[in-house]
Specification:
Layout: H1 3-9, H2 11-20, H3 24-28, E1 31-39, E2 44-47, H4 49-60, E3 64-75, E4 80-90, E5 96-105, E6 111-120
Parallel strand pairs: 1-6
Antiparallel strand pairs: 1-2, 3-4, 4-5, 5-6
Length: 135
């Protein structure tokens, strides 16, 4: 994969880094005018980049955000990148949650779609402690 391709695939990581840095206007610049977002767990559909950025600003202002893992593929038919991200979000009260973020990036390096799933971190049940190692 060439340099330009790698840059397109990294747009999803860049978005979350900008969220961490509270650079909301720069983050908005990565999003296409025809953007659609989905939060399936709460059955929300988000139309437009402005609404998507505002939702993240309200939810994550002041939080520490770190991309833990990322993978990407190129869809030859749609001519778009599919980026899968595992993101750790920590607020000021030591609450941790993960986001699984699936982002579509077009050939112009613009985000056209995002699907995000959220999970709060919790302690493992005592009944499993003999079967697992905690990290």
């Amino acid at each position: 994969m060439g340099r330009i391709d790698e840059e397109a695939a990294k747009v999803g990581c860049q978005l979350w880094r900008l969220f961490n840095d509270q650079e909301w206007d720069k983050a908005r610049g990565l999003i296409s005018g025809e953007f659609e977002g989905y939060w399936p767990l709460t059955k929300e559909q988000i139309f437009g980049g402005d609404n998507f950025i505002e939702l993240h600003r309200r939810e994550h202002s002041g939080h520490q955000i770190q991309v833990v893992n990322s993978q990407f593929t190129y869809d030859v038919w749609d001519k778009a990148y599919e980026v899968a991200l595992q993101v750790l979000i920590e607020d000021g009260m030591l609450r941790r949650r993960y986001a699984l973020s699936f982002i579509t990036v077009d050939r112009d390096h613009q985000i056209t779609k995002a699907i995000e799933y959220w999970a709060d971190c919790c302690n493992a049940p005592e009944s499993r402690k003999d079967l697992v190692k905690l990290f």
